[in-house]
Here is the input.
Amino acid sequence: MALSITSWVIGLFVLLIILAGLRVIKQYEQAVVLRLGKYKRIIKPGLRYVIPIIERAYRVDLRIRTIDVEPQETISRDTVPVNVDAVIYYKVQDIKKAVLDVEEFQKAAIKLAQTTLRDIVGKSTLDQLLMKKDQIGEAIKTILDKGTDEWGIKVSNVEIEDVTIPEDLKRAMARESEAVREKRARIIKAEAELEASKKLKEASETLAKSKYSFSLRQLQTWQEIGAEQNSLMIVIPADVASKEVTGLAALGKAELDKIPKKK
Here is the structure.
């Protein structure tokens, strides 16, 4: 009776040991197994067994991860204070290096990303930060990828999310943009006036060649004025107008002659 109870206890203990060593590794994971503190093997996805107490498994997620780099306040190359934040996409390619060669590789990657972001922003001008985000992101990616290669990490992409500048600088930039637009508008207006003057000169030369072209153009102008302004026009022939002007000039001269001249 005592033997059977002992057998049951031993059997139950062995069963517990076996169950305690079972590990289910997911499809997107791998695990590094250390036996008595030394590297032993890498286990793949599926149902795997790890010897309890003697062995320990460190799981690593192999999916693409993201790092939200907090806004870094620094000064650009043209001495403008800016806040720049970014998002970094990376994945673990060598889990042995990620577990054995660096402590908490994700925190190490975040620190390296912050340092690199401040360094790149300090070497770039404000215009480059605002207009060439893709190139700056590619430069950060190259530096990070080189720095994390020893950790078994591959940086796939770096995106610059936002570049924040002081409010007074925003207003100054707005005034500058407004001045540039006003300058452009004045240049366009001047070019239009120059082109219009050339066309008017060509039109005057064309009208001078024909006897009736000027009269036709005058009639067309009257028609346009009447249609747009809805006004009443009194048309005086040119010969009558010239006679009236001549008569008024003669009358004025006669009146002037009547005024006695001082000696």
User: Anything to note?
Assistant: The chain has four domains: 2-61, 65-165, 173-208, 210-246.
